[in-house]
Each structure stands twice: as C-alpha cells, then as structure tokens.
C-alpha cells in the first residue's frame, strides 16, 4: 500500500524573518538574505529522491503571499502598493508575517488518519489551525481549500476544518502512526506539549490532539506528552526529535515526558514494535536539534526502510557515527541513509520531515486523489523550469516593502497554477 508524500513547494516569497519563538534556526537566521529559487529547487530534488525510492509524490501549493487581506484586516488601507508601503513603515514584523512562505512545511498542514485506523473506514484529514504563531495562523484557509480539492471524493475522504483556535494544533508534526503495514490497523500517537513557565511555547494543546482523534474516529489513539526539556532545547514540534514508520519508532531518548509509559504501550499494542533510540550520552538533545537527524523522512523501501536526512546530520561527526551504527545494526530495518542539501528550508527550522505530509492510501484511494496535485518525472522537469524562470533569486528583509517584488511573486504563483491546470477560483481566490 503506497504512502503518498505531499510536499510543500517552497514559495517565491521564502524569507528569513525570525518569526517563530522557540525555533532556534529561524530566530538565529532572522534578517538573513534568503534564496527562494535555490530553496524550491532543493525541495524538488528531495521530492525526486523520495519518488525514486518508490513513494507516490505530490505537492501542495504555496499560498497567495503577501497576504494583503491580513494587512487590510489590521487596518492598513489604500491600494496594494500603499498597503505594503505603510506596513513596511509602521510594522515590519507584521509585514514579514504577511509575506511568509511557511505553508511549505506541510507536516503542519493537517493531521491524517488513514482508512485502516478509523471507525468509518475513510481517510480523515483535519487542517491544522497553527494558532500559536501569527504568521502560521493565516495558513489554514488556503490549505483547507487545497485539501478539499485534492481529496474531494467523500466516499474515501473526510476533510475537516480546524479545531477551535483556543487550542493550538500543528498537525502531523505532532502525530505518529505505528502499524505492521501501511494498510493494517495502526496505533496513532498524538504528542502534545505543556512547558508551563518555560521560555518557549508548547504549540500543540492536548485538547486539540484529543479533538482530532475524536473527529477522525481513531480506534487506537495514544496521547503522549512531549518532554519540556525537548521544547526548551528547541524541539518546537515533536518531529524534531522523533519520527515513526511501520513498526519503527526512531527517536531521541529525551523526546517524551513519560518515555517508559509510551514504550510499554507501544510494545503492547504494536506487533513487532521496534525502537531505534539515540541515547543522550551519544547524541545530546542540542545535537539532535541542530542536526535535525530525527527530522528525517523515514520511508519504506523494498528491502527495509530508508532515512532521508538533511546535510546537517552528515556534518556532525557524532551524529553521523551513530546513524552509521543504526544502519549497520541488523536489529532494525533501516538499511539506507540518503543525505540531501535542504539548507534554505533548514535555516528556518524545516527539515525533510517538515516538508512533507504523509497520506497512507490504498491504490483505489490514490486513484481518487485529484491528479493535478500528483507529480511524475515530466512534471518535476516542468516545475524546475518554471522555478528557474519565475522564482526570485534572493530576498533581503528590505525587499518586503517593494511592491515590484510582490508583483513578481504573484506572477510566479499564477504561472504555477497555470502549469498545474488549477484555476484560482477553485481555491476560492479571485
Ligand atoms: O513553524 N518556521 C517553521 C518551521 C516548521 C517546521 N515544521 C516541522 N517541524 N514540522 C515554524 O516554526 C520560520 C519563518 C520565519 O521565521 O520567517 C518558521 O515559520
């Protein structure tokens, strides 16, 4: 049974504004000059790799940015140029939020429960409200419109709106599924944060996790708290310190508040459960966060599993040594390590796992997905040519006040929609 990977295509407005408190990469790169064209091409190279490993590959589109609607709602008036100029003058931070290309991290687009896990036998998707960070809270309407289009067939799919914004929900980044096979009933682990009184916010409220499990009708759900120490070390989402696939949980020893309880439950509930865990004395939490080794795409391949890792994990000798030991150990199915350069996204705290939403589907369900969201070799080639032609080479913070850049980014996105055959009106845009 295939696992569709829906990657967020990096948008033409990709920039470094330091908007996410608790995301150490993003805050330390605030004000740097970004390279949207290179960023999007790095993302496509990673999609090509995962596709070559055998997974069906699709994409979600960048949203219409800058979000003039947000700026107008905040009281900036006049024509579009005037709105941009006034916001640049009065509130550059808000302007940067309106430009954010953050929808690229589709692990935060939605939580997905495949048909094998749910009471009504349909695949359920709840769009994430991303309520904790203002620049991310503007994403869900654009994401929901795309999910409703891509998964329109209600015989197979149920697409839900967000849970109420009083309860922050960051989607699949805080959700793991373990099962003997993609199409076998699985156990879904909903990881939430607390971190009361800490420096950094917990972005997944336990009630949001419970609401999603309830809405989806998940038969076997486990609620697991993230360790406060992990949040404080910069694991603003669980997928910075853990990822699961099949029967494997690949995680840092200090990822979970009640580690033993979680492991005992998984042992009981997942036949063949396999833990691949980095001990803190071999890889510290800080090294896990800076190298993003757990933010890998863990994918099933013919002879086991493969990890798609960011270059940063290769660059840390201790991390790389541990990863090689994992690969050589016959006691787990991880046979292959693939390293890719995703530095542009990584500098905003987004690794290989952040850039993709996994949707486990039967062949029949894959056939029910709107094919305009699916990619093949020809489409990769055409997307690359389009990005080379339209995506800005660089964006510096001062460029966000430039209305000409706004026009260029709008034209770039329009060219993308045109290539995919999606009319703006289908996404509720004029
Ligand atoms: O929400 N960075 C994103 C990174 C999301 C990573 N996703 C997962 N771990 N699944 C975030 O913190 C930075 C944007 C800026 O500062 O300009 C940002 O939003």
The CATH architecture: 5-stranded Propeller
Number of individual domains: 1
| CATH overall fold name | L-arginine/glycine Amidinotransferase, Chain A
Radius of gyration based on Cα positions: 20 Å
Largest sheet, order of strands side by side?
A: 2-1-15
Q: What ligands can be seen in this structure?
A: N~2~-(3-carboxypropanoyl)-L-arginine
Strand content: 15-25%
Task: Show the helix and strand layout.
Blueprint: E1 3-8, H1 24-28, H2 36-52, E2 57-60, H3 68-73, H4 80-90, H5 92-99, E3 110-113, E4 123-127, H6 134-137, H7 140-150, E5 157-160, E6 175-178, E7 187-192, H8 206-216, E8 221-225, H9 228-232, E9 242-245, E10 248-252, H10 259-269, E11 274-278, H11 285-291, E12 297-301, E13 304-310, H12 311-315, H13 317-328, E14 334-340, H14 343-346, E15 356-360, H15 363-368, H16 377-390, H17 403-420
Parallel strand pairs: 1-2, 4-5, 7-8, 10-11, 13-14
Antiparallel strand pairs: 1-15, 3-4, 6-7, 9-10, 12-13
Helix pairs in contact: 2-16, 4-5, 16-17
Bound molecules: N~2~-(3-carboxypropanoyl)-L-arginine.
N~2~-(3-carboxypropanoyl)-L-arginine binds next to loops.
What do these coordinates show?
A three-stranded mixed beta sheet has the order 2-1-15, with helices on one face. With 430 residues, it is an alpha/beta fold. It is built from 17 helices and 15 strands. Helix 2 packs antiparallel against helix 16 (377-390) and helix 4 packs across helix 5. Strand 10, helix 10 (259-269) and strand 11 (274-278) form a beta-alpha-beta unit. The model has no long low-confidence stretch (mean pLDDT 97). The chain has one domain (3-65, 100-427): 5-stranded Propeller (L-arginine/glycine Amidinotransferase, Chain A), CATH 3.75.10.20. The chain has helices at 24-28, 36-52, 68-73, 80-90, 92-99, 134-137, 140-150, 206-216, 228-232, 259-269, 285-291, 311-315, 317-328, 343-346, 363-368, 377-390, 403-420; strands at residues 3-8, 57-60, 110-113, 123-127, 157-160, 175-178, 187-192, 221-225, 242-245, 248-252, 274-278, 297-301, 304-310, 334-340, 356-360. The longest helix has 18 residues, at 403-420. The structure holds N~2~-(3-carboxypropanoyl)-L-arginine.
């Amino acid at each position: 049974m295939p696992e569709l990977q829906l990657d967020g295509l990096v948008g033409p407005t990709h920039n470094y504004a330091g908007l996410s408190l608790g995301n150490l990469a993003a805050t330390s790169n605030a004000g740097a000059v970004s390279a949207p064209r290179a960023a999007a091409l790095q993302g496509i190279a990673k999609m090509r790799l995962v596709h070559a490993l055998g997974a069906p590959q699709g994409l979600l589109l960048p949203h219409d940015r800058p979000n003039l609607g947000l700026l107008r709602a905040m009281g900036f008036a006049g024509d579009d140029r005037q709105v941009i100029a006034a916001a640049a003058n009065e509130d550059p931070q808000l302007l940067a939020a309106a430009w954010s290309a953050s929808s690229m991290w589709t692990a935060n687009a939605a939580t997905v429960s495949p048909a094998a896990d749910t009471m009504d036998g349909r695949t359920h998707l709840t769009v994430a409200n991303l309520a904790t960070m203002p620049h991310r809270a503007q994403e869900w309407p654009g994401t929901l419109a795309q999910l409703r289009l891509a998964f329109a067939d209600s015989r197979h799919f149920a697409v839900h709106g967000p849970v109420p914004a009083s309860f922050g929900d960051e989607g699949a980044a805080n959700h793991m599924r373990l099962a003997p096979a993609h199409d076998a009933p699985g156990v879904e682990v909903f990881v939430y944060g607390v971190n009361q009184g800490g420096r950094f916010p917990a972005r997944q409220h336990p009630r949001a996790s419970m609401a999603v499990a309830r809405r989806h009708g998940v038969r076997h759900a486990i609620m697991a708290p993230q360790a406060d120490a992990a949040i404080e070390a910069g694991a603003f989402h669980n997928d910075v310190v853990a990822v699961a696939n099949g029967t494997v949980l690949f995680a840092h020893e200090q990822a979970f508040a009640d580690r033993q309880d979680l492991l005992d439950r998984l042992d009981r509930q997942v036949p063949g459960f396999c833990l691949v865990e980095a001990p803190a004395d071999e890889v510290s939490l800080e090294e896990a966060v800076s190298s993003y080794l757990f933010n890998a795409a863990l994918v099933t391949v013919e002879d086991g599993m493969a990890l798609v890792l960011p270059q940063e994990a290769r660059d840390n000798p201790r991390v790389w040594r541990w990863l090689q030991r994992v690969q050589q150990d016959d006691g787990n199915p991880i046979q292959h390590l693939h390293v890719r350069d995703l530095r542009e996204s990584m500098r905003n705290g987004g690794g290989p796992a952040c850039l993709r939403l996994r949707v486990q589907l039967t062949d029949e369900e894959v056939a029910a997905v709107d094919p305009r969201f699916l990619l093949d070799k020809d489409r990769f080639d055409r997307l690359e040519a389009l990005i080379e032609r339209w995506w800005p080479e660089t964006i510096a913070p001062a460029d966000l006040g430039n209305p000409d850049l706004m026009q260029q980014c709008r034209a770039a996105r329009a060219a993308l929609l045109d290539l995919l055959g999606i009319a703006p009106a289908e996404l509720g845009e004029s």
